[in-house]
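Known limitations

Structure tokens in this collection are predictions and should be treated as such. Users comparing against experimental data should check residue numbering before alignment. To illustrate the layout, the record for glycine oxidase is reproduced below. The input appears on top and the generated tokens appear beneath it.
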Amino acid sequence: MKESIVVMGGGVVGLSCAFELQRRGHQVTVLEINRCGGQASGAAAGMLAPYSENVEGPDAFFQLCLESLRLYPEWQQNVKQASGQTFEYTNSGSLYIAYHEADLLALEGRLLWQGQYGSSGKIIEGDALFRLEPNLSRNVRAALHTPEESHVYAPHYVRALEQACRLMGVTIHENLDKLTIVEWQREILIQSTDQRMFSGDQLVVCSGAWAQELSDTFGIRIPVYPIRGQICAYEVDEKPVHHMVFGNQGYLVAKENSTLVCGASEDVAGFDTSVTDKGIERLRKWNKQAFPFLEDRTPFHRWAGLRPSTQDGLPLIGALSGSSRVVFAVGHYRNGILLSPATAMLAADCIEGKNTAAYNQAFSPERFGR
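Generated tokens:
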């Protein structure tokens, strides 16, 4: 049975859920308090790197991230086709660099389990490493090369998602200032500040760092907090960095628009999205350590976004046990771009009452109690 679905939040996760639900034949309305993609989504570096960003082991979160990476080739083609727009999607591969013997041992340990989950990665050292990245500092001892990892240009990707949704018939309301859930058990009724009322059969909550405001509404703890992520970019004439390059202090990724993006300096600053000299200077210090040619370069662009982080670092994805009308898809922290396809599929399956992989139980929106 096709349903009328209200998606609360127009970031990359909300737009992805709307896109997938509309593709499945539901009628979707997106409600956004600001502009679609205006917070963490548009500010992201767009890395699709589950092997590089999940270093502890193959837990449920890693498995969800890996599933999403594998969905991306077809997913991004579907978004481009539906929107009539293009955006950068580059299978650059990644290098996770190590300066010391202890760091190299950690990479070798990581490679052991990642190989069991589809990585064709290997440790690269010496001349072979510098052939891959000629501008890399000679102080780098080795790197874990993972060919499977990719990246997108986030602002264009989010813009294409929004256009795809609009062309497919999704109704999008922006600049609503504040939304109040009036009813969610018998039906979905949501009121905006200007007294407009929006209704539907089911609700998908994708309100990012603002989801914590709904704790009283649903009677559950929703410990989602904004983490400010600061990023900077350099203008480059050629492509001086060929892979996504990760280290324990940051990352660098070159884009097709002749920019080199570096991130991310993180701190707790509430909902403040201002950029600080201290945060950017920390990035610059790491940049020139990894790539000495950046020593005298000054970033031409600096920006920040709010990343919705949960208390345990895992997103909240799934239906409320007390009401099949409400599905959560929030708390993706720094992986919203990567997780957008897998989250959309999972949320749509929950809306339609389908069975999902057992590891998704780790993302229960009620796991923090009432």
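For this record: The CA atoms of residues 99 and 141 lie 5 Å apart. The radius of gyration is 21 Å. Please report discrepancies through the issue tracker.
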